[in-house]
Amino acid sequence: MPPYPKIQALYLSANYGAPGDLDEALQGVDVVINLLGMYPESWAQLGEAAYRTGASLYIPSEFGPDHRSFDYQSPFEQKRVQSEQTREKGIKSVQIFCGVFMEHALPVGRHLGIDLPGRSVTAVVPTGGSDPRVSFTSVTDVAMTIASVACRRPSVLPDAIQIASGTWTLRQLGEYYQSLIGATVHVTTQDYLAFRESVLNSDHQSPSSHYQLAAGAGLLDYSTTNSNDWVSAGMWEWRSIQQHLTGI
Ligand SMILES: NC(=O)c1ccc[n+]([C@@H]2O[C@H](COP(=O)([O-])OP(=O)(O)OC[C@H]3O[C@@H](n4cnc5c(N)ncnc54)[C@H](OP(=O)(O)O)[C@@H]3O)[C@@H](O)[C@H]2O)c1
Predict the structure, then answer these.
(1) So what's the pLDDT on residue 4?
(2) 61 lines ligand 1 (CB under 6 A)
(3) Where do the NmrA-like domain residues begin and end (predicted)?
(4) Is the domain 19-246 a CATH 3.40.50.720 member?
(5) What pTM value is reported for the model?
(6) Which of 5, 87, 124, 232 has the fewest CB within 10 Å, making it most exposed?
(7) Which residue has the least CA distance to atom 20 on ligand 1?
(8) Is the beta carbon of 39 within 6 A of some atom in ligand 1?
(9) Spatial separation of the C-alpha atoms in residues 92 and 129, rounded to whole Å
Protein backbone atom coordinates (compact mmCIF):
# COMPACT_ATOMS: atom_id res chain seq x y z
CA MET A 1 0.00 0.00 0.00
CA PRO A 2 1.40 3.47 -0.85
CA PRO A 3 2.25 5.80 2.04
CA TYR A 4 -0.70 8.14 2.52
CA PRO A 5 0.06 11.67 3.73
CA LYS A 6 -2.37 13.37 6.07
CA ILE A 7 -4.60 15.63 4.02
CA GLN A 8 -7.08 18.27 4.97
CA ALA A 9 -10.27 18.49 2.92
CA LEU A 10 -12.00 21.85 2.78
CA TYR A 11 -15.26 22.87 1.18
CA LEU A 12 -14.59 26.28 -0.34
CA SER A 13 -17.12 28.88 -1.34
CA ALA A 14 -16.27 31.54 -3.94
CA ASN A 15 -17.79 33.70 -6.62
CA TYR A 16 -16.92 31.96 -9.91
CA GLY A 17 -17.48 35.14 -11.89
CA ALA A 18 -14.74 36.95 -9.91
CA PRO A 19 -11.31 35.42 -10.66
CA GLY A 20 -9.73 37.27 -7.69
CA ASP A 21 -12.22 35.65 -5.29
CA LEU A 22 -11.56 32.20 -6.68
CA ASP A 23 -7.78 32.66 -6.52
CA GLU A 24 -8.01 33.81 -2.92
CA ALA A 25 -10.11 30.77 -1.99
CA LEU A 26 -7.62 28.41 -3.64
CA GLN A 27 -4.43 29.82 -2.06
CA GLY A 28 -2.29 26.96 -0.77
CA VAL A 29 -4.56 24.27 -2.23
CA ASP A 30 -2.69 21.34 -3.85
CA VAL A 31 -5.64 19.32 -5.15
CA VAL A 32 -8.69 20.94 -6.68
CA ILE A 33 -11.74 18.65 -6.78
CA ASN A 34 -14.53 19.88 -8.99
CA LEU A 35 -17.90 18.67 -7.67
CA LEU A 36 -20.04 21.08 -9.68
CA GLY A 37 -23.00 19.92 -11.72
CA MET A 38 -23.22 20.54 -15.48
CA TYR A 39 -21.80 24.08 -15.52
CA PRO A 40 -19.05 24.06 -18.19
CA GLU A 41 -18.37 27.77 -17.83
CA SER A 42 -17.70 27.35 -14.11
CA TRP A 43 -15.55 24.26 -14.79
CA ALA A 44 -13.34 26.38 -17.06
CA GLN A 45 -13.14 29.19 -14.48
CA LEU A 46 -12.18 26.71 -11.76
CA GLY A 47 -9.56 25.02 -13.96
CA GLU A 48 -7.99 28.37 -14.82
CA ALA A 49 -7.90 29.37 -11.15
CA ALA A 50 -6.28 26.01 -10.27
CA TYR A 51 -3.56 26.82 -12.81
CA ARG A 52 -3.05 30.39 -11.59
CA THR A 53 -2.77 29.31 -7.95
CA GLY A 54 -0.35 26.44 -8.65
CA ALA A 55 -2.46 23.36 -7.82
CA SER A 56 -0.69 20.11 -8.68
CA LEU A 57 -3.76 17.94 -9.26
CA TYR A 58 -7.19 18.64 -10.72
CA ILE A 59 -10.04 16.15 -10.48
CA PRO A 60 -12.67 17.28 -13.00
CA SER A 61 -16.41 16.93 -12.58
CA GLU A 62 -16.81 13.59 -14.37
CA PHE A 63 -18.22 10.89 -12.04
CA GLY A 64 -20.35 9.32 -14.77
CA PRO A 65 -19.97 7.37 -18.03
CA ASP A 66 -16.62 6.92 -19.73
CA HIS A 67 -17.54 8.98 -22.79
CA ARG A 68 -14.12 8.41 -24.37
CA SER A 69 -15.53 5.28 -26.04
CA PHE A 70 -18.77 6.85 -27.34
CA ASP A 71 -19.07 6.86 -31.14
CA TYR A 72 -21.80 9.53 -31.03
CA GLN A 73 -22.22 13.05 -29.66
CA SER A 74 -23.48 13.32 -26.09
CA PRO A 75 -23.83 16.02 -23.40
CA PHE A 76 -20.93 14.32 -21.57
CA GLU A 77 -18.62 15.46 -24.37
CA GLN A 78 -18.47 18.86 -22.64
CA LYS A 79 -16.70 17.17 -19.74
CA ARG A 80 -13.75 16.18 -21.92
CA VAL A 81 -12.91 19.83 -22.56
CA GLN A 82 -12.25 20.70 -18.90
CA SER A 83 -9.58 17.98 -18.60
CA GLU A 84 -7.97 18.91 -21.89
CA GLN A 85 -7.77 22.55 -20.86
CA THR A 86 -6.13 21.83 -17.51
CA ARG A 87 -3.70 19.32 -19.08
CA GLU A 88 -2.72 21.90 -21.69
CA LYS A 89 -1.80 24.20 -18.82
CA GLY A 90 0.37 21.48 -17.30
CA ILE A 91 -1.82 20.41 -14.37
CA LYS A 92 -2.28 16.69 -13.85
CA SER A 93 -5.96 15.90 -14.40
CA VAL A 94 -7.48 12.54 -13.41
CA GLN A 95 -10.92 11.68 -14.79
CA ILE A 96 -12.94 9.33 -12.59
CA PHE A 97 -15.63 7.35 -14.45
CA CYS A 98 -18.14 5.36 -12.42
CA GLY A 99 -21.25 4.46 -14.45
CA VAL A 100 -24.47 5.32 -12.64
CA PHE A 101 -24.81 6.49 -9.03
CA MET A 102 -26.74 3.78 -7.15
CA GLU A 103 -28.52 6.44 -5.14
CA HIS A 104 -29.81 8.11 -8.32
CA ALA A 105 -31.05 4.97 -10.06
CA LEU A 106 -31.94 2.33 -7.44
CA PRO A 107 -34.54 1.33 -6.50
CA VAL A 108 -36.02 4.10 -8.64
CA GLY A 109 -34.58 6.96 -10.66
CA ARG A 110 -34.80 8.82 -13.90
CA HIS A 111 -31.33 7.83 -15.11
CA LEU A 112 -32.04 4.34 -16.45
CA GLY A 113 -35.78 3.68 -16.65
CA ILE A 114 -35.75 1.68 -13.43
CA ASP A 115 -38.74 1.72 -11.08
CA LEU A 116 -38.41 -1.34 -8.86
CA PRO A 117 -41.07 -0.32 -6.29
CA GLY A 118 -43.40 0.31 -9.27
CA ARG A 119 -42.35 -3.19 -10.42
CA SER A 120 -41.12 -2.08 -13.84
CA VAL A 121 -37.77 -1.94 -15.59
CA THR A 122 -37.16 -0.81 -19.15
CA ALA A 123 -33.92 -2.10 -20.64
CA VAL A 124 -32.40 -0.94 -23.91
CA VAL A 125 -30.94 -4.06 -25.55
CA PRO A 126 -29.24 -4.76 -28.87
CA THR A 127 -31.37 -6.69 -31.37
CA GLY A 128 -30.59 -10.38 -31.07
CA GLY A 129 -27.82 -9.67 -28.58
CA SER A 130 -27.50 -10.47 -24.90
CA ASP A 131 -28.58 -8.03 -22.20
CA PRO A 132 -25.82 -5.47 -21.57
CA ARG A 133 -24.38 -5.23 -18.07
CA VAL A 134 -24.45 -1.88 -16.31
CA SER A 135 -22.10 -0.64 -13.59
CA PHE A 136 -23.57 1.13 -10.57
CA THR A 137 -21.40 2.94 -8.02
CA SER A 138 -22.37 4.26 -4.61
CA VAL A 139 -21.67 7.91 -3.90
CA THR A 140 -19.63 6.82 -0.86
CA ASP A 141 -17.37 4.70 -3.07
CA VAL A 142 -16.95 7.67 -5.42
CA ALA A 143 -15.99 9.87 -2.45
CA MET A 144 -13.51 7.27 -1.15
CA THR A 145 -12.00 7.04 -4.64
CA ILE A 146 -11.60 10.80 -4.84
CA ALA A 147 -9.82 10.77 -1.46
CA SER A 148 -7.59 7.87 -2.51
CA VAL A 149 -6.59 9.59 -5.76
CA ALA A 150 -6.10 12.96 -4.04
CA CYS A 151 -3.64 11.41 -1.55
CA ARG A 152 -1.23 10.09 -4.17
CA ARG A 153 1.62 11.83 -5.90
CA PRO A 154 0.29 13.28 -9.19
CA SER A 155 3.24 11.80 -11.11
CA VAL A 156 2.11 8.21 -10.33
CA LEU A 157 -1.50 8.78 -11.36
CA PRO A 158 -3.11 7.69 -14.64
CA ASP A 159 -5.10 10.24 -16.66
CA ALA A 160 -8.35 8.34 -16.18
CA ILE A 161 -9.78 5.50 -14.13
CA GLN A 162 -12.99 3.54 -14.13
CA ILE A 163 -14.59 2.30 -10.91
CA ALA A 164 -17.69 0.16 -10.30
CA SER A 165 -19.34 -0.85 -7.03
CA GLY A 166 -21.48 -3.50 -8.74
CA THR A 167 -22.40 -4.54 -12.27
CA TRP A 168 -25.63 -6.29 -13.29
CA THR A 169 -27.97 -6.46 -16.26
CA LEU A 170 -31.23 -4.60 -15.73
CA ARG A 171 -33.01 -7.95 -16.05
CA GLN A 172 -30.93 -9.31 -13.15
CA LEU A 173 -31.95 -6.26 -11.13
CA GLY A 174 -35.62 -6.91 -11.83
CA GLU A 175 -35.28 -10.60 -10.94
CA TYR A 176 -33.40 -9.85 -7.72
CA TYR A 177 -35.97 -7.27 -6.60
CA GLN A 178 -38.76 -9.70 -7.51
CA SER A 179 -37.20 -12.25 -5.15
CA LEU A 180 -37.06 -9.58 -2.40
CA ILE A 181 -40.68 -8.48 -2.62
CA GLY A 182 -42.27 -11.75 -3.78
CA ALA A 183 -44.12 -10.06 -6.66
CA THR A 184 -43.47 -9.84 -10.37
CA VAL A 185 -41.23 -7.04 -11.65
CA HIS A 186 -41.99 -6.47 -15.33
CA VAL A 187 -38.95 -6.11 -17.57
CA THR A 188 -39.67 -4.57 -20.95
CA THR A 189 -37.08 -4.05 -23.62
CA GLN A 190 -36.44 -1.36 -26.18
CA ASP A 191 -34.44 -2.02 -29.32
CA TYR A 192 -31.05 -0.30 -29.11
CA LEU A 193 -30.91 0.97 -32.70
CA ALA A 194 -34.41 2.46 -32.60
CA PHE A 195 -33.70 4.02 -29.19
CA ARG A 196 -30.38 5.44 -30.43
CA GLU A 197 -32.11 6.97 -33.44
CA SER A 198 -34.75 8.62 -31.26
CA VAL A 199 -32.23 9.98 -28.73
CA LEU A 200 -29.69 11.29 -31.22
CA ASN A 201 -32.39 12.95 -33.37
CA SER A 202 -34.12 14.56 -30.42
CA ASP A 203 -34.00 18.33 -29.90
CA HIS A 204 -33.41 17.77 -26.19
CA GLN A 205 -30.25 15.79 -25.38
CA SER A 206 -30.93 14.88 -21.75
CA PRO A 207 -28.20 13.20 -19.66
CA SER A 208 -30.70 10.53 -18.53
CA SER A 209 -31.54 9.40 -22.08
CA HIS A 210 -27.79 9.26 -22.72
CA TYR A 211 -27.26 7.06 -19.66
CA GLN A 212 -29.85 4.68 -21.14
CA LEU A 213 -28.23 4.85 -24.56
CA ALA A 214 -24.76 4.12 -23.19
CA ALA A 215 -26.17 1.28 -21.09
CA GLY A 216 -27.84 -0.23 -24.17
CA ALA A 217 -24.58 0.02 -26.11
CA GLY A 218 -22.78 -1.90 -23.35
CA LEU A 219 -20.65 1.17 -22.62
CA LEU A 220 -21.52 1.34 -18.91
CA ASP A 221 -20.00 -2.04 -18.06
CA TYR A 222 -16.80 -1.45 -16.06
CA SER A 223 -16.82 -4.85 -14.38
CA THR A 224 -13.58 -6.00 -16.02
CA THR A 225 -11.86 -2.70 -16.73
CA ASN A 226 -12.17 -0.99 -13.36
CA SER A 227 -9.31 0.07 -11.11
CA ASN A 228 -11.18 -0.85 -7.90
CA ASP A 229 -8.35 -2.87 -6.32
CA TRP A 230 -5.70 -0.25 -7.07
CA VAL A 231 -7.89 2.57 -5.76
CA SER A 232 -9.17 0.98 -2.56
CA ALA A 233 -5.89 -0.84 -1.82
CA GLY A 234 -7.72 -2.87 0.84
CA MET A 235 -8.86 0.25 2.71
CA TRP A 236 -12.61 -0.24 2.22
CA GLU A 237 -15.19 -2.68 0.86
CA TRP A 238 -17.10 -1.62 -2.24
CA ARG A 239 -20.84 -1.39 -1.71
CA SER A 240 -22.75 -4.12 -3.52
CA ILE A 241 -26.06 -3.72 -5.34
CA GLN A 242 -27.60 -6.23 -2.90
CA GLN A 243 -26.43 -4.14 0.08
CA HIS A 244 -27.89 -1.02 -1.46
CA LEU A 245 -31.25 -2.60 -2.29
CA THR A 246 -31.65 -4.30 1.07
CA GLY A 247 -30.32 -1.31 3.02
CA ILE A 248 -27.68 -3.38 4.81
N1 LIG B 1 -23.10 8.94 -12.40
C2 LIG B 1 -24.27 9.43 -12.01
O3 LIG B 1 -25.27 8.71 -11.92
C4 LIG B 1 -24.37 10.89 -11.63
C5 LIG B 1 -25.56 11.38 -11.07
C6 LIG B 1 -25.60 12.73 -10.73
C7 LIG B 1 -24.51 13.57 -10.95
N8 LIG B 1 -23.38 13.03 -11.52
C9 LIG B 1 -22.22 13.88 -11.75
O10 LIG B 1 -21.73 14.32 -10.49
C11 LIG B 1 -21.24 15.67 -10.61
C12 LIG B 1 -21.98 16.56 -9.60
O13 LIG B 1 -23.36 16.54 -9.96
P14 LIG B 1 -24.52 17.07 -8.99
O15 LIG B 1 -25.79 16.42 -9.43
O16 LIG B 1 -24.07 16.96 -7.57
O17 LIG B 1 -24.57 18.59 -9.40
P18 LIG B 1 -25.62 19.73 -9.00
O19 LIG B 1 -26.43 19.28 -7.82
O20 LIG B 1 -26.34 20.16 -10.23
O21 LIG B 1 -24.66 20.92 -8.60
C22 LIG B 1 -23.67 20.77 -7.58
C23 LIG B 1 -23.34 22.12 -7.03
O24 LIG B 1 -22.85 22.99 -8.05
C25 LIG B 1 -23.03 24.34 -7.59
N26 LIG B 1 -23.55 25.20 -8.67
C27 LIG B 1 -24.81 25.37 -9.04
N28 LIG B 1 -24.87 26.25 -10.07
C29 LIG B 1 -23.61 26.62 -10.32
C30 LIG B 1 -23.03 27.49 -11.27
N31 LIG B 1 -23.73 28.13 -12.21
N32 LIG B 1 -21.69 27.65 -11.23
C33 LIG B 1 -20.97 27.01 -10.31
N34 LIG B 1 -21.48 26.16 -9.40
C35 LIG B 1 -22.79 25.97 -9.41
C36 LIG B 1 -24.00 24.30 -6.44
O37 LIG B 1 -23.24 24.52 -5.27
P38 LIG B 1 -23.78 25.46 -4.09
O39 LIG B 1 -24.96 24.71 -3.55
O40 LIG B 1 -22.63 25.53 -3.14
O41 LIG B 1 -24.14 26.74 -4.75
C42 LIG B 1 -24.52 22.89 -6.47
O43 LIG B 1 -24.85 22.38 -5.20
C44 LIG B 1 -21.48 16.08 -12.06
O45 LIG B 1 -20.33 15.84 -12.80
C46 LIG B 1 -22.57 15.14 -12.53
O47 LIG B 1 -22.55 14.90 -13.92
C48 LIG B 1 -23.29 11.73 -11.84
Answers:
(1) 59
(2) yes
(3) 21-188
(4) yes
(5) 0.95
(6) 5
(7) 37
(8) yes
(9) 40
